[in-house]
Amino acid sequence: MGPQSRGLMMPVPAGMRPAFGRDRDAMSDLKRTPLYDLHVALGARMVPFAGYSMPVQFEGVMAEHVQTRQKAGLFDVSHMGQVMLTGASWDAVALAFEAMVPQDVLGLADGRQRYGFFTNAAGGIEDDLMFARRGDALFVVVNAACKDADVARMRAALEPGVTVELIEDRALIAVQGPGAEAVLSGMDAAAAEMRFMDVRDLDLGGVAVWASRSGYTGEDGYELSVPAQAVEGLTKALLDHAEVAPIGLGARDSLRLEAGLCLYGHDMDAETTPTEAALNWAIQKVRRTGGARAGGFPGADVVLAQLADGAARKRVGLLPEGRAPMREGVALFDAAEGGAQVGVVTSGGFGPSVERPVAMAMLDAAAVDQPLWGEVRGKRLPVATAPLPFVAAGFKR
Amino acid sequence: MKFTEEHEWLRVEGDEVVVGITAHAAEQLGDVVFVELPDEGTTVSKDDEVVVIESVKAASDILAPIDGEITEVNSALADNPGMVNDDPQGEAWFFRMTVSDASQMDEFMDEAGYQKFIG
């Protein structure tokens, strides 16, 4: 969070503001997902997030986090942007999209999904996204806060050869956790046949959904694109399972942090390159120097050079040695007193599953593996770099 | 028990007051994961930041409700911050302090007033 306010406040996670006082008026201008009424009926605390009124918590962040790691959690992510790209052929759509992202799109098999990002001319990341091949079409899911800019960017880059459709009549929910497979396969046995990053249509109690076996919690699970008019009924049916509970944005944030996953606008932004964000793994060989379709995306000169030579700074995991959380904005130094600032925390908080503070930071490359101190409320507290993720991924590969 | 607009409670015990945060505040803060207490013997003025309290969601602090000296802190909270959620108006007191100016106590609310304040 930013500067600490004085006195006891009613805090919400990074990027979210509490709905009191003046903000209460702003709440009326917020968009609602098709699950808004259900969230309120379930007792959610609603906060403004990316222009939407969203549930930050139901039972409580800690309980919801543990629920998702141990059983299954249901998340409303309908605020995210769902975009369908269609064209004359798969090759036409894929090659056009490859001009916007450094990923191998053309080589994506039907029914498979990949993680990717839009880059800018300086090699910075404009947004991160998931893209899936559905026949000859490309289904793209982008962050809520970026979706208008992303759609404009895609229209400018792809039309008229490729049609860019922002899908506004479908909700998006995620069912995450070790119990997710049993719940969904009980409704459609095909759910169990999917492996990590597979996409396919499922019939969940008569509702046709576009399912992907993925998520952003570090757990096994599914994301389900659901016709808006059917999503409340399906969500209620899923919540009827004893294993499933509704989860808010608060636990979504702590789950993805423990899983070492980047949050756009925090751990990376338009000034952060893929190599700096430790996302080299997401750039396939075919797009790298020497590959059959090397480069050809915005900022390729910078991105490819850094892939080969590294960058001057890098996203790392951090484990504070004490109990005090180190949150976004905490400055990192190379000495207990004096010294130089060598980095800054980009996401941080308490990890309910690891039962200790965890954080991610952007750190000077030379300072990785050196002793570090984070300055919290004027005090330098020891902190060590640590491998990511903080919890082992539960994916069904 | 008296209550402040900063969501603290004060319980008078002899010449001193015991200070904690209200059940309403604890519920709003969410799961408390870290508490940093002042040193015993510290002299404080009203509205000084004396305790840091962090929930899973964010950092916040508790202000000294009155002028005085911190005479004792509840060090059990440092090892078990979750007590703040389990028993905010009982076991999870934060500190005990002297009262330099008893008139500062006059402005605080009683329980009914506080319940009305939080609406």
What does this structure look like?
The complex is a heterodimer of chains A (397) and B (119). Chain A contains 9 helices and 19 strands. By secondary structure, chain A is α+β, with helices and mostly antiparallel strands. In chain A, a hairpin with an 8-residue loop joins strand 11 and strand 12 (221-227). Chain A is globular. Chain B is an alpha+beta fold and 119 residues long. Chain B has one domain (2-100): Beta Barrel (OB fold (Dihydrolipoamide Acetyltransferase, E2P)). In chain B, the strands form 2 sheets. A 6-stranded antiparallel beta sheet of chain B has the order 1-2-3-9-8-5. In chain B, strands 4-6-7 form a 3-stranded antiparallel beta sheet. The longest helix of chain B has 8 residues, at 111-118. The relative contact order of chain B is 0.27. Chain A binds chain B through residues 1, 4-13, 57, 60-63, 65, 250, 254, 323-325, 327, 349-350, 352, 357, 377, and chain B through 6-8, 21, 25, 28-31, 33-34, 36, 47, 49, 52-63, 78, 81.
Q: How are the SSEs ordered, and which strands pair?
A:
The complex is a heterodimer of chains A (about 400) and B (about 120).
Chain A: H1 21-27, H2 36-41, E1 45-49, E2 52-57, H3 61-70, E3 72-76, E4 81-86, H4 90-98, E5 113-119, E6 125-134, E7 137-142, H5 147-158, E8 163-166, E9 170-176, H6 180-185, E10 199-204, E11 207-212, E12 221-227, H7 228-239, E13 244-246, H8 249-258, H9 300-309, E14 313-320, E15 331-333, E16 341-351, E17 356-364, E18 372-376, E19 379-386
Parallel strand pairs in A: 3-13
Antiparallel strand pairs in A: 1-2, 3-9, 4-7, 4-8, 5-6, 6-7, 9-12, 10-11, 11-12, 14-17, 14-19, 15-16, 15-18, 16-17, 18-19
Chain B: E1 2-3, E2 8-13, E3 16-21, H1 23-29, E4 32-36, E5 43-44, E6 49-55, E7 59-63, E8 68-73, H2 76-79, H3 83-86, E9 95-98, H4 111-118
Antiparallel strand pairs in B: 1-2, 2-3, 3-9, 4-6, 5-8, 6-7, 8-9
